[in-house]
Design goal:
The complex is a heterodimer of chains A (about 290) and B (about 375).
Chain A (H helix, E strand, L loop, with lengths): L1 H28 L6 H18 L4 H24 L7 H23 L15 E3 L2 E3 L1 H23 L1 H11 L1 H6 L4 H27 L6 H15 L4 H22 L4 H15 L14
Antiparallel strand pairs in A: 1-2
Chain B lengths: L1 H7 L1 H4 L8 H26 L3 H26 L7 H18 L4 H23 L4 H21 L1 H4 L11 E3 L2 E3 L2 H24 L1 H11 L1 H6 L4 H27 L9 H14 L4 H17 L7 H15 L3 H18 L25
Antiparallel strand pairs in B: 1-2
The chains are: A mainly alpha (about 290), B mainly alpha (about 375).
Chain lengths: ~290, ~375
């Protein structure tokens, strides 16, 4: 029981990181990034290459991966978002879908079709506690996510750069008038988002493995989580993600592992029909 | 036929006759164009270098039907549905299961596919179309994922991950449609019918109401339009088109499995529509044909072809945001501008249909 809860929370934390990366971009530019799941995958694979391929110490490999992924985030916004910044909503969806196809198949060429993993920082010896055994990596995932969320909260509320990023997300025109370099802020948002995806990839690799086609399901689940929480609301997305993670672990254990994904979507639909703006809904006033 | 041809070959007729030509000249031009188009479509399968290319041509025809359907809801009504693979799958499975398990004739399977997808479209459309923008997008993804998971896991009925084998070829009574060539004419007939239907709708009140909803749902409602009803109707019609396509696909390939009904397939349809030019019938046809053949043209790249495919989708979107049709329109209006100096507005039909997202302003670094 406890084991399932920890398992589910760990998975939920991963979804929360992915959802957060997603929402950062959405809030900054109003675009949906359909390649967010592939960025998670790329982060995982790069970590494996640095840690296992180049035999760098794990911590160095982690930091290297995050730095590389921030770079990927910059290139990504330059290529897939910037040229389409004043085009309709669907155009950015399609361009990010194009990137996701290219990344998925590129990863297949570079890393092959087999699921890969690398050793956990804390070892694989389960901790026994009241007749349930808990993997240290699961606890590690939860701890790192909590630290990251707290750090991000402080970053956005207490630092000048964080304030500038927020201002850009809220109203780019006014932000520009205030002398904020809006273009650079948007680039920074994409870099931060890709770095978050990298962390998610690194955290999940030791226990959940990295495969080339993991991006789609991870992205859909993070998407479901952010919609359940109310799109645009960061606390909502975190609650939604933890809920999805725990729920799917329990459904897989007690109901049917085949239908665990269907449950996530069923709950999504239920929530949407009952509270069309999600649990912590974003406030939208209709423009005429 | 002449009318149809305007849609299939916009370069031919779009500039229009010079004003002096008069109605008679115009009619002759249309007839000639139509006859040429018909002749071309009839001999087209003979021009294909091999049977595989003919198969692709058949696939392209099926995709044309599905994309024309998607255009009703996405291109005209401006509602982002990312769940069309569900209707495509439902049509395919309905007909495949009825013909293999219960021995129904092909026509029966086709009718069942049409009825079932239409009903499912209404049932799914009523609750989901209350949502907008990315909520609608996500709800439709959710519906499609649930349908796919049922197809994979309801083994006694759907055959599970193994799919349905030995789907019989199409037939009408004693007339058996087995070869790729005979399938071509069946698919051509359905694609033309689908195009004719869409073309009639485009000029009808129904089509205009949908476009009014896309441009401003509130304004349309103020004018007395029952917007939810029209959106559901468009969605159901769109589902029926996808169902017909799915059914033809099942009988053409003889084997179906749940892999072909996932989110990736929806993405293929949406990409075809947007790259062709959403809102335009010619765009639907061009997008479907172009993206069916694009992976084949890239196959010379061996292992790299899917990577390049992804990159070319990105590049096409960046450089042709109005789709292929947008590019053609621009070229034509530029030529007209050069001739008559008359300003003409060129706008992408999706340009105003942003989701209710907080719109990003124009940005520069």
């Amino acid at each position: 029981m406890l084991q399932l809860v920890v398992n589910g929370l760990a998975m939920g934390c991963i979804y929360a990181l992915v959802a957060l990366g997603f929402l950062l971009i959405y809030q900054a530019v109003g675009a949906l990034n359909f390649a967010q799941g592939e960025l998670v995958m790329l982060g995982g694979f790069l970590g494996i290459s640095l840690a296992v391929g180049l035999r760098l110490p794990l911590l160095v490999a982690f930091l290297g991966t995050i730095a590389l992924m921030a770079l990927v985030g910059w290139v990504f916004q330059r290529v897939a978002y910037y040229p389409l910044r004043d085009k309709p909503f669907v155009a950015v969806i399609i361009s990010t879908v194009g990137v996701s196809i290219a990344l998925r198949n590129g990863a297949l060429l570079l890393w092959g079709p087999n699921p890969l993993s690398f050793p956990s920082l804390l070892g694989d010896e389960p901790i026994r506690f009241a007749d349930s055994s808990i993997l240290p990596q699961h606890l590690f995932i939860i701890a790192v996510t909590l630290v990251l969320l707290a750090a991000q909260y402080l970053f956005f509320t207490r630092t000048a750069l964080g304030h500038q990023l927020q201002a850009t997300a809220q109203d780019p025109e006014t932000a520009r008038l205030m002398g904020i370099p809006v273009g650079r802020m948007i680039a920074a948002t994409f870099m931060l988002s890709a770095a978050m995806a990298a962390v998610a990839g690194l955290l999940l690799a030791p226990v959940f493995f990295v495969t080339t086609d993991m991006g789609g399901p991870v992205m859909l689940k993070a998407f479901v989580a952010s919609i359940i929480g109310g799109f645009g609301s960061i606390p909502g997305a975190i609650v939604g993600a933890l809920f999805v993670g725990v729920m799917e672990t329990f459904v897989a254990a007690y109901v049917s592992s085949a239908y665990k994904d269907a449950f996530a979507f069923l709950i999504l639909l239920l929530v949407l029909f009952v509270w069309p703006r999600g649990l912590f809904g974003e406030k939208i006033s209709e423009k005429v | 036929m002449a009318a149809l041809d305007r849609e299939t070959s916009p370069t031919l007729a779009a500039p229009g006759p010079p004003p002096a030509a008069g109605a008679r000249g115009r009619r002759w031009r249309w007839l000639a164009g139509g006859a040429a188009g018909a002749a071309f479509l009839l001999v087209l399968p003979r021009l294909m270098p091999g049977s595989y290319q003919l198969h692709l041509l058949n696939l392209a025809g099926i995709y044309v039907i599905v994309v024309l359907g998607l255009n009703f809801i996405l291109g005209w009504a401006g509602q982002i549905s990312l769940g069309h693979a569900a209707f495509w799958g439902l049509g395919a499975y309905a007909s495949a299961l009825l013909t293999t398990r219960l021995g129904w004739p092909f026509a029966g399977g086709l009718v069942a596919a049409i009825v079932l997808t239409g009903l499912f479209g209404v049932v799914v459309g009523i609750p989901t179309l209350r949502l907008r923008g990315h909520y609608l997008a996500m709800a439709t993804v959710g519906v499609a994922e649930i349908v796919r998971l049922v197809l994979v896991n309801w083994e006694p009925v759907t055959g599970g991950a193994l799919g349905v084998k030995n789907v019989p070829p199409a037939s009408f009574g004693p007339l058996l449609i087995r070869t790729e060539l005979s399938f071509y004419y069946l698919i051509l007939a359905w694609a033309l019918l689908a195009l004719l239907g869409a073309w009639q709708l485009q000029r009808s009140t129904f089509g205009r109401i949908l476009q009014a909803i896309r441009d401003s749902e509130i304004a349309a409602e103020v004018m007395g339009v029952d917007a939810p009803r029209y959106k559901v109707l468009a969605f159901a019609l769109s589902a029926v088109y996808a169902g017909i396509g799915g059914c033809l696909y099942a009988h053409l390939s003889g084997y179906i499995s749940p892999d072909t009904y996932g989110f990736d397939q929806t993405v293929v349809f949406v990409t075809m529509l947007v790259l062709g030019g959403a809102g335009s019938l010619a765009g639907c046809v061009l997008g479907a044909v172009l993206l069916t053949f694009l992976p084949e043209w890239l196959r010379v790249l061996k292992d790299y072809y899917m990577v390049i495919y992804g990159v070319s989708v990105l590049l096409l979107m960046v450089f042709l945001p109005g789709g292929v049709v947008g590019l053609l329109r621009q070229a034509i209006s530029r030529r007209r501008l050069a001739i008559s100096h008359q300003p003409s507005a060129v706008s992408s039909p999706l340009a105003e249909s942003r989701a209710d997202a907080p719109g990003p302003g124009p940005m520069d670094g």
